[in-house]
């Protein structure tokens, strides 16, 4: 009998095979899952336990390292997988779920039960209510729900209300896998485990901050989902704003889930509300268009030929507090860009006076700190140095730290980290209900503006380019330009 069961809704979907199963397997191999665990996959696709195991086994060979494929533990892991075909939208089907859970756990209450909602977002509000009606929301259960949590402010509030009517907040884990990334967590260590940066980390010394999370892939097979989401809901309202919070937050006095999440909420609550001018001029949205070899967004499967969904967004945002007043944060994300990279660039103020000549005539007078989250994970500080030899020319050089010098990042990925945290009851890296609300309060006006102004510009950008040129114009207002990593 299993003492711990993880029930995955959406078990035949993309996220399960790409991320969840490899993450669970990584935890299993390291003996980091509870003993006697079982996974029960739920989906509408018809599988039996054995056909589901075969399906996952085959898919795992695509998503875990080749040297793992023949490992006996892979077979043992797959033996722990079970499957129940049901329609998660049908209340009547939950009786089957209750019966199957009892089969897996026996008469005794298991030590833990974890629901993972990896379904289309339209089911996020339905499943908890059906679980409750079937008496499956018992005190020892936890639930992980994927992003986007809500479609806009109203729907996010409605979801929060539904979840609060079914579970206690300490049972609810709103996942944002960016927070599970080692390099995202390291922003906190970098800032708060060192004495030399924090005194400079404010409006007196920082001119502006750039946060970039771009990809060189399109929407892959996710047209159906993406059409209803767009870059704002898919990346900005959650991942990017979390990175803003990690960069801008105050140090919690003691590092624990409550204190950390309180500081995140304070950042969201300090975001300067977007004005009419911001909505018109400080948000640039784009959509990728065909290149010689790749289709444009509108040619993708399950995308309307006249779609207005944005695949790129760049925004200037401000934080109204003592530390950050007047320091713009420029954030951007996009599909089908020249490369995949996530990084934060902190631009310090220029020296007040330049007394040296500069190599090549171009004189960078400001230090730049680059926190590279992926790939080539590391940290780079750019500073001026005298060019050796006669005269007194100065040029910028880099002082850099790369995780590869430590032998690389641990293999466990963001999902493994977060699933393990959830099993252990640690909510630090999960989004609390008030944070969801505060974040949506900030972004909701953008969605409303687009709704009310269907002609608001949506610029095309060819696949493989850095997005609409208009996003450069937004930076030029500040006398700056985007740092495009190569
Ligand atoms: C997901 C988005 O949350 O994050 C995807 O839904 C995006 O559209 C992905 O591709 C990016 O995550 P990562 O970890 O690959 O940078």
From TrEMBL:
Catalytic activity reported: D-glucose 6-phosphate + NADP(+) = 6-phospho-D-glucono-1,5-lactone + NADPH + H(+)
Provide the top EC class. Answer: oxidoreductase
NADP as a keyword of this entry, yes or no, is yes
Classification via SUPFAM superfamilies: Glyceraldehyde-3-phosphate dehydrogenase-like, C-terminal domain, NAD(P)-binding Rossmann-fold domains
Provide this UniProt record's keywords sorted from A to Z: Carbohydrate metabolism, Glucose metabolism, NADP, Oxidoreductase
Which residues are catalytic? 239
Q: Does the keyword Oxidoreductase apply?
A: yes
Report the residue ranges that make up the Glucose-6-phosphate dehydrogenase C-terminal domain in this protein.
188-482
Q: Where does NADP(+) bind?
A: 10-17, 44, 147
InterPro entries assigned to the protein according to its UniProt record, in alphabetical order: G6P_DH, G6P_DH_AS, G6P_DH_C, G6P_DH_NAD-bd, NAD(P)-bd_dom_sf
User: Which Enzyme Commission number(s) are listed?
Assistant: 1.1.1.49
List positions binding substrate.
Answer: 177, 181, 215, 234, 335, 340
Q: In which pathway does it act?
A: Carbohydrate degradation; pentose phosphate pathway; D-ribulose 5-phosphate from D-glucose 6-phosphate (oxidative stage): step 1/3
The record's listing under Pfam families reads: G6PD_C, G6PD_N
* Glucose-6-phosphate dehydrogenase NAD-binding domain sequence ranges: 7-186
**Protein family (similarity comment):** Belongs to the glucose-6-phosphate dehydrogenase family.
> NCBIfam families attached here?
zwf
Function of the molecule: Catalyzes the oxidation of glucose 6-phosphate to 6-phosphogluconolactone.
This protein is called what? Glucose-6-phosphate 1-dehydrogenase
Q: From which source organism is this entry?
A: Bacteroides clarus YIT 12056
